[in-house]
Amino acid sequence: MKTGILLSNLGSPDAPRAPEVRRYLKQFLSDDRVLDINPFLRWLLLQFAILPFRSRRSAKAYAKIWTKNGSPLLVHGKQLRTALAQRFQEEGIPVVLGMRYGNPSIPRAMQELREQGCDCVIVVPLYPQYASSSSGSALQVVYETAARLWNTPSLTVLPPFYDRPEFINAFAEIGRPHLNPVPDHVLFSFHGLPARHVQKSDNSGRWCLQQPNCCAQICEENRNCYSAQCHHSAQRLAQALEIEPERWSLSFQSRLGRDRWLQPDTLSILEALARSGKRRVVVFCPAFVADCLETLEEIAIRANAEFQEAGGKSLTLVPSLNNHPAWVSGLETLVRTQFPSYGGTSESGSEIHCAGASHSIPA
Question: What is the pTM of this model?
Answer without folding.
Answer: 0.92
